[in-house]
Amino acid sequence: MAGFRRSAPTIDRPLTAELDRVNVVTLHAANPGPMTGSGNWTYLLPGPHPLLVDAGVGHAGHLDAVVAAAPGGPAVVVVTHAHADHVSGAPALRARAPAARFLKVPWPESDAAWDVPWEVLADGQELETADGPLQVVHTPGHAPDHIVLWHEASRTAFTGDLLVRGTTVVIPASRGGVLADYLRSLRRLAALGPRRALPAHGPVIDDPLAVIDGYLAHRREREQQVLDALSGGAATIPAIVARLYQGLHPALVAMAEESVLAHLVLLEGEARVARDGAAWRLAG
Hints:
The chain is an alpha/beta fold.
């Protein structure tokens, strides 16, 4: 789950790319849809111990492509976070590659849904690849367990659902998303000075700092819109969504409500709004 999308655009990413000093095989998870756009990208770093970033959804074509790119299957599978489009393929990968290790930052109530022997990843941990180490950067907000993998030598970041060019990232506030954490995570990635971001959805991002700046500006604008909607008499989340997202496709209303809730929770934490049951109001 990444952002607000209405159709599945054409897949136009090359299968392989030489990204400075990190060699990446780009593999599509074959799961287009309203929530995922053209579908998820997964990334294989080949070598003596191939490492796969994200597990896909278990589609046979994706599994075949993974094994073709890494005969015998990956040695390590790193999941950026436990949303289904990133993690649900893990059991099928395990069946294809029984010796593979499966790693992620814990999110116990979600991790238990997948029959995989998870190994714990920690912030700052390094994972070896043929092109040098990947550092684990814990970037919660979209999900509590979300990580970025940072390849310092090439200043390349594997960003999961932290960034998506051309759309915003949903913060599912009723299911572990925290907007304040997400904003801190954006700033943490910016402080690393990335030159290129490889997201789980959409095209490669060659100007990640500009995208981050745009995201931060968008969130400030959306915050003011929520405050203006409350000031104008919209007291419930559906009423605020109706004001802010006119003409929104019905399939995306639930995501819009999550986004509004995320902003309201942030404003509540700053004592700028208050809630009375399902109703919200400006504080003071």
